[in-house]
Amino acid sequence: MFKVLRDLLRYNREFLFGSLLIAIILAVVVASYFAPYDEMMTYAVIPDMPPGSEYWLGTNSRGQDMFWQLAASMRNTLIFGIVVALISRVIAIAVGLISGYVGGKTDQAIMAFNDTLGALPNIPILLLLVFVLRDQMTWPVLALTAALLGWTHDSRLIRSVALSLRTREFTRHAAFSGMRTTQILLREHLPYVMPIVFFTTMNNLIWAIGLEVTLSILGFSDINRPTIGGMIYWANAHSAMVAGIWWWIAVPMVAVVMLFIGLFLLAMSVNEYIDPRSRLARMGA
Amino acid sequence: MTEVLDFKPAVTQAQDVLTIRDLKAYYVNDMFGVRREVRAVDGISLTVRRNEVYGIAGESSSGKTSLIKTLAGAIRPPMRVVDGSVNFSFGDTHIDVYAEPEKMKAARWQNLSYIMQGSMSVLNPVRRIKHAFNDFAFRHMGLDRRAFRQRVESHLQKLGLDPNVLEAFPHQLSGGMRQRVTIALATVCEPEFIIADEPTTALDVLVQQDVLGLLKEVQARLGSSVVFVTHDMSVHAAITDRLAIMYAGRLAEEGPTQAMFDNPQHPYTAHLIASLPRIGDVSTRKSLAGKPPSLANPPSGCRFHPRCPIAIDRCSKEVPEMLPSAIGGRVACFRAGEVAVK
Amino acid sequence: MSKLLELDHVTKLYPVGGLFSRQSIKAVNDVSFSLDADKPEIFAIVGESGSGKSTMAKMMLGNEVPNSGRLVFDGTDISTIRNRSQREAFMARVQPVFQNPFEAFNPLTRVDAYLFGTAHRFAGANNQAEKERVCDEALQRVGLSMAEIKGRFSHELSGGQLQRVAVARALIPSPKLIVADEPVSMVDASLRMSIVNLFRSLRDELKVSIIYITHDLATAYYISDRVIIMQKGVVIESGDARAVLDNPTHPYSIALKNAVLPPDPRAASAAIRLRSAAAAG
User: Fold this and answer.
1) What's the pLDDT tens digit per position in C212-268?
2) Residue A178 sits at the chain C interface (C-beta within 8 Å)
3) Which residues of chain C have a CB within 8 Å of the CB of B258?
4) d(CA A148, CA A142)
5) Are the Cβ atoms of A278 and B36 closer than 8 angstroms?
6) Alpha carbon distance B61, B279 (integer Å)
């Protein structure tokens, strides 16, 4: 594992740059645990101070230090995104591999459900849920809901690969070697869908963060819990742009763009590394 | 237009069309710090004469596919020509493939064409056959549309094909028919040089002979040279005039096909011929011990020595040179001619 | 005499065409033959692409069910195999060897995984030492050893070696029947005869019957005891291999035999000339 990281850092520029961006973001996230005051507290510092030596990223009109706000928001948003991505990956892999391997009627039925779910518009459903659940709509519930909505496209991609793997001779060979279906799926097929899984994880992460930001900006989430979207929501509520507090908007935006670019670059380089063709080339096939 | 393209020679002297000198082409793979060098073509010299079918035989990973890619100037990274030269001479036009890529580009299809293993790689499955002729040959012929169409139709007729195939889609034709169309496509410009890469391997036995017969006939009529690559020794027996045997990126033996089958000089050639099963003969056929060498890490000395039944000490230390053989060809073996596997 | 495998008027249809013009073609049309249980033999099924020979292999391995007729293996109708344990009992007695060894072994999986899996499931080997012993025994029979194979990936072995590993793997459950679908067509010429000769020794020494499916008349002649020749799903000629291939009677078998290129330049080029002369005239 260490050698893999070293090779990637040394030979792949995208990976180097991507990890640099992500490292900055992670450092900020780690810093959130050392905040000098509670992240929910308002008027802890002098409001509306521009970025400078005392407050690196300035302060907002609610008397919060932008740096510590950003740290807490980034942590919360990232955790949200990762939870969504992980849950939806497990569903996408299971559905995609099983549907592709079993084939026939089962495949048709699963894919019909898959496509129906995929055709539903996400934001209205989430908004509806927010209205129905009101105060019970905590972030874990939101994450679970988003995860249940966010796997359909990727399971279809995984299935398309699984369908072709099913007809490969090594699948039949594995069956005649006494391997059970789960073994065939996990040992023989999973490595071939890993590049898709990895890349869609990154996409899904970005999608989930975008979803969170959208809902928060609209004010449909727990607005007191700091998130990237929540920061923008408060900035809007205080007309930060009109008041000339540009850093209130700029800080979360720059941070989210850094996060997206970093994730994208990492996804690209790691994808190249775990691609079966490139793996085989390195193994000397 | 016509005068630019009209440099086709009328001369048919017994002159070499293709000369390869000490050609070395390696695959250099550098991925995440793992550097690998695969010596697919490692010091090959050969010549192909006018009006002959030159066979290249070899097993998988012997480098035969890399060799024809190299001589056609069709190599891409990670493959690189490290040393040596490839020269074509089409009449008065002489082309050094790796020094003059522009000249080579102009000669493609006009002077040099290809017949590939899968006909589907040249025939687009969703377009009619006539489009393939337009795409590949039209701009090289310098004819107007109608004359071009007439020329193509008469060419198809000469090859025993119904001109109606032009209106067909590839999937409407059988595998043998498709391969005949690709031969027609490759020969419509009457090129002096044709590269045929395993053209019959994917075909059923029943049509294999037809396709080979057609190819031989076209070759004889046009007087062109064909480099014919296949692993199948029976196909080489049927169609080639001279034959080169490749082993692990080098030539093991080269010579007149008939003489090589009658009296192979290299132990590897002898084995390839002796191991062919024949109907009417049930005597036990032996198989070579060991496995084909890795081109990334080939054996020292003669690359065949670990599997050779008659290897001596010298074989593992020195590399045998290609020297004239007793049957009018060349052979790279210290014990050339000592094998009599019958 | 009891039968090892009996095909009784087996027919397999395949649907062709789209949603509106559904038709079916007979991939295998009314095929019957049987193998005796106490007389191991190499039984060749010869045909070109589209002859139905690969469909036959799939049916004999239980991967496809015939539309009519019965395939009976050792007293059990193969189509009645439903659950996992019946299927495993069947697989312990009938094993396949596939066409392309580089396809049959997943390039990202170690080759020994297939051997250990088979040893565990079908030979009752539960610990690592036991598995290795069982696999080594099978590998020795094909002229290899565990030491050469352990931890290797498929690209580190030659096609011939891999195909021998595939045969060794098929031998681990001590099967009664091996179904080999074009087992040598993707193997290099210098290694091909090692596989073909191996089948012969399996028949003679281990008393395993082998269904040898091929398009190559020359190797069929070389190793098989009996042969059937198929054309478009129909058996057009059958009988003792040497007798049938020396003197074929059906026009298609004759054409097939004549299409085999003799491995001799004089005869082969004469055959080619004859063909193109016939095509021209």
Assistant:
1) 999 989 999 999 999 999 999 999 999 999 999 999 999 999 999 988 888 888 888
2) yes
3) 265-266
4) 10
5) no
6) 29
Q: Measured between CB atoms, which of A178, A188, A279 is closest to C118?
A: A178
Nearest to B123 by CA among B133, B115, B132: B132
CA distance C242 to C263: 19
This model of the complex carries an ipTM of 0.88
Pairing of strands B93-96, B53-57: unpaired
How does pLDDT run across A201-248, given as a tens digit for each residue?
888 998 999 998 888 888 888 878 899 988 999 998 888 888 888 999
Is the CB of C249 inside 8 Å of chain A's CB atoms? no
Structural domain containing residue C108? 3-280
Contact criterion met (CB < 8 Å) for C193 and B287: yes
Asked if B2 contacts B142 with a C-beta cutoff of 8 angstroms, the reply is yes
Long-range contacts made by residues A20-25, C-beta under 8 angstroms, separation at least 24?
A20/A262, A21/A258, A21/A259, A21/A261, A21/A262, A21/A265, A22/A259, A22/A262, A22/A263, A22/A266, A24/A258, A25/A74, A25/A78, A25/A255, A25/A258, A25/A259, A25/A262
- Residues in contact with B336: Cβ distance below 8 Å, sequence separation at least 6, in sequence order: B265, B266, B323, B325, B326
Count of domains observed in chain C = 1
Asked if A282's CB is within 8 angstroms of B31's CB, the reply is yes
Q: What is the CA radius of gyration of chain C?
A: 20
Q: Do B279 and C246 touch (CB under 8 A)?
A: yes
A282 with B34: Cβ contact below 8 A: yes
Phi/psi-derived region of residue B190, left when phi > 0, alpha when psi is between -120 and 50, beta in every other case: left
User: In sequence order, which residues have a C-beta less than 8 Å from that of residue A48 and are 6 or more positions away?
Assistant: A58, A59, A60, A61, A243, A245
Neighbouring C-beta atoms of residue C50, cutoff 10 Å: 16
CATH number of the structural domain spanning residue C92: 3.40.50.300
**Cα–Cα nearest to B28, from B69, B82, B67, B71:** B82
Q: Which of residues 129-168 of A touch C (CB under 8 A)?
A: 168
For residue C193, name the pLDDT band (cuts at 50, 70, 90).
confident
Question: CA geometry: angle at B86 spanning B81 and B87, to 5°?
Answer: 155
DSSP for C28-96, please give it: EEEEEEEEETTS--EEEEE--TTSSHHHHHHHHTTSS--SEEEEEETTEEGGG--SHHHHHHHHTTEEE
Angle at B274 between CA B273 and CA B277, to 5 degrees: 95
Q: Which of C61, C105, C115 has its CB closest to that of A170?
A: C105
**Residue pair A29/A71 in contact by the 8 Å Cβ criterion:** yes
